[in-house]
Amino acid sequence: MAHIKVGVSLYPQHCSVEELRGAWTEAEQIGADSCWIWDHFFPLTGDPRGRHFECWSLLACMAADTNRVSLGPLVSCVSYRNPDLLADIARTVDHISKGRLALGLGAGWFKKDYDEYGYEFGTAAERIDFLESACQRIRSRLEKLNPTPLGRVPILIGGSGEKKTLRIVARYADAWNTFGPVDNFKRKVEVLERWCDREGRDLAEIEKTVLIQGFGSQESWDRELKSMDSYVEAGVDHFILGIGHPFDLGPLRDFVDAARGFNSSGK
Questions:
Q1: How is 126-156 classified by DSSP, letter by letter?
Q2: Cα–Cα distance between 28 and 97 in angstroms, integer?
Q3: pLDDT beyond 80 at 215
């Protein structure tokens, strides 16, 4: 059976850098397998003018502060940075972390980021097409850099579009992230499996991650925790909890404990 992993995505909004550093240090101490940061320039919830920090600068700091967890963006928008430059940034963070980087990539969707920073938003189809070309350019650039990454940097692709995005996942991804609930996850896995069949890819080669969000409600966290077995039966390999300020990591502790029990049971 697969070893079930648990990670946390820390939302870099309405907080200080010191609070973020304390949160990812605590997450590693709790036993998280992974730590992630989203890639936006403005808060997604709460005061839209609130405090916010840039993803890759934080990841470099996280790489230096931690020793064990895998880390990466969930996910890095490929149209915010030239893909070859993004590969170079990722390679550098990989070296700082001593080989623990997972490179999460996505097509982008938050129009305010694009408008405020002068990027061309275009259409959803254009952004998804660019995601595919960026995957190719990034993998090629990683192989050309001197020095190269410390190992093969796994590419995680976030998204669930059934006509294009999941085809790109089947072609290029080492890991894939989507959302719950369980029924939604099941459907997306079925579609991804069909794309894997068409692309000559084994679905089992792709680590399947799901982003779980409690939205500040202990009841929501408890409901998702009770669904862990159902998620695993549907194919989840890696649970990632989305947690914002004030970074209460109690739910992470609960999921880590549950995963330990699940892994030791041999289910």
A1: HHHHHHHHHHHHHHHHHHHSSSPPSS-PPEE
A2: 14
A3: no
